From TrEMBL:
Protein name as it appears in the record: Helix-turn-helix transcriptional regulator
PROSITE patterns in UniProt: HTH_CROC1
Signal peptide from the UniProt entry: none
Gene3D superfamilies: lambda repressor-like DNA-binding domains (1.10.260.40)
InterPro entries noted in UniProt: Cro/C1-type_HTH, Lambda_DNA-bd_dom_sf
Domain HTH cro/C1-type residues, every copy: 5-59
Organism, scientific name: Sporosarcina siberiensis
Pfam families per record: HTH_3
Keyword terms: DNA-binding
Highest taxon above the source species: Bacteria
Amino acid sequence: MEHRIKELRTSFCFTQEQLSQKLGVSRQTIISLENGRYKPSLELAYKIAKLFQLSIEEVFIFEKGSE
């Protein structure tokens, strides 16, 4: 699964720490998300999309067969 989290975070001028606080997760979670080592829960994916005023599909690119 690919995503645009880092791109969106930098375009909104958020640090990783600021984004983590807004989402209620640790900075390490943001680092892991951005590096592709962690797949967010549906709840976290929704929070991320809502924060950036986008749909989940606009933030996350789901590839066929990548469950």
